[in-house]
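Late entry, evening session. Most of the bench is empty. Finally got around to the prediction I had been postponing all week. Sequence below, unchanged from the version circulated by S.P.
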Amino acid sequence: MGVQGLLGELDGSAVRRWARVALDQMGRAREEIDALNVYPVPDGDTGTNLFLTLESGTDAVDALFGRDLPEPDLSTAFRALAHGALMGARGNSGVILSQLLRGMAERLAAEEAAASEAGRPVPAGLALAHALRTASDAAYAAVARPVEGTMLTVARAAAEAAAGAGEEIRPVVRAAAMAARVALARTPEQLDVLRRAGVVDAGGRGLTVLLDALLAVVTGERSAYRIHPHQAPMPVPVPFAGPVGAGHEEVSAGPGFEVIYLLDAPDDALPALRERLGGLGDSLVVVGGEGLWNVHVHVDDAGAAVEAGIAAGRPHRIRITHLERVLAGTAAPEPAPTRGIVAVAHGDGLATLFAENGAHIVQAGPGRRPSTSVLVDAIRHTDAREVVLLPNDADCHAVAGVAAQQAQAEGIRVQVIPTKAAVQGLAALAVHEPGRRFDQDVVGMTSAAGATRYGALTIAVREAWTMAGVCQAGDVLGVIEGDIAVIGHDQRETGTVVVDRMLAGGGELVTLVTGSACPVGLAASIERHLRATRLGVDVMIFEGGQEVYPLLIGVE
């Protein structure tokens, strides 16, 4: 028996959609949230920590879906989301987020069990409102010294609004999302450090991203909240240009280390652990259950914090961050002259092309982005102190940005070139000159990528509305700069129309990259058309092997 609502069924697929949309939106808001970060420690990483925590949860949900796997139910998917977030939680905000998700998962599982026992469905809106309340209560209980004006306050406001919005899921989600935004705008009134800095709470802002993503999944509506304050439904203080403390010489007067670890320990060991860690420092948060806990604390004696975990059980995945070094804006070591390129490739042929041009390759499957950790590992494996990262996909930009920040914390200078397609990555590599200064090389590569218009052919899998009209399953779709511009029935005809439209604004070089499903002779046919109609245009054809797009098109 499922939890019924206006979604038809609030099920495992809905949880997966929410996680994916939330991760995408968190990636877009990451830098803004990092810049808001002044509490509890102004280290400018709240958005990054929330993204990494959510990425871990999303990957755990994605792992439940496969060709040979039965589709998971609501409880299974939500438990995976919460468990993944717990395992990958970063920072104070990420640990609290994992507990919020765990509280929701436990309550929704209880609602499903009650529905099954009663033999009738529970209204989805009512179940979600109960889950938000349980999540808020669990988060408050996990924090040793709860402070108002933080993401805890925003979570409680959302839960209280949801409780009074009825039983249908759409008004419940709308009420929760709007109440969260209102509570966020009021956080400077509750926390003096926010008022002095002229910002809202970073963790609270992250929570609004999650609720706005849920609103989009449930209702199909785009959030009324925008990053720019003048577009928001209520006044929100303007964030400053960069993370607090960046480039500043003064250091925090608080504890010097952030200590985070996973802990295998029985429930009855937790009271003593909390008491011992509470005496060592502040910002103490302990979340989890069923023998697995995530422990976060700021202390001066990192060894004592780890020893407290050893006394309670088995700590592992221990991460210790020197907060004073972060806050002091300690400069990274001067990079060595070695330089590397990391490129994301969506096909064997593309991987070969990028590798032949000196890039280290990260291969991505059809419709799937590489994880942050995979990109960070690739950056490390270049053994270079300066690295250029080519995501080659708009959906990979957020992950690439987080990976770059992670690598920079290790002293590697990383610059992401915002390539949205493989043809832009190839154009950037074509002008790469290792002998130039790093900044000059990055500017040149970025300019080459930006001057390359990109298009593609793909096949519609279902009926849908597009900018070019209504398409049916099996139609050939011509994509220009990410938008569907042409709907056709023949790949040669559609490809020719797309190339001609792209050349209408000028161009001297057309690059055609064939995919694994590209019809024989398609690229050659388009090349003959161009040689007959545009004498000043050169054509280059490569075998890319990508699966989603039978043909990629670049115009320079």
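Two things to note before I forget:
The longest strand covers residues 281-289.
The chain has a mean pLDDT of 84.
Will write this up properly tomorrow.
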